[in-house]
Write a structure and sequence with these properties.
This protein has two helices and four strands. It is elongated. 23% of the residues lie in helices and 8% in strands. By secondary structure, the chain is α+β, with helices and mostly antiparallel strands. It has one domain. It has a two-stranded antiparallel sheet.
Length: 104
């Protein structure tokens, strides 16, 4: 893995995204089909797409970042059924929310 850059506070920083880097899709079109983005680039993790708000992730000390996170996708089918939609529509919306959580 490449050497980590650090910001003025000493926390790890990603290098700035190039101008042509894909941005996060407009939420009004959800559920979304995302453009193909590489899972890794040159042996490093790829940067997630930029959120429409242009907000950046908060500065978190490296020692406080968990190694993994679990997201329990429960209730999507019930949510859809309560709204008169098919269960798969609930799963699609759950997927869209999961992508928002993981991509920003």
């Amino acid at each position: 893995m490449a050497t980590k850059r650090t910001g003025k506070n000493g926390y790890p920083q990603l290098p700035p995204a190039p101008e042509d880097y894909p941005s996060f899709p407009d939420k009004s079109s959800w559920p979304v089909v995302f453009p193909e983005l590489p899972a890794r680039t040159n042996g490093r993790f790829a940067r997630p797409p930029q959120h429409t708000s242009k907000a950046s992730a908060p500065q978190i000390p490296a020692g406080q970042v968990p190694n993994h996170v679990a997201v329990v996708m429960d209730g999507n089918g019930r949510w859809a059924t309560q709204r008169g939609l098919g269960r798969t529509e609930g799963h699609k919306m759950g997927e869209a929310v999961l992508i928002d959580i993981t991509c920003g």
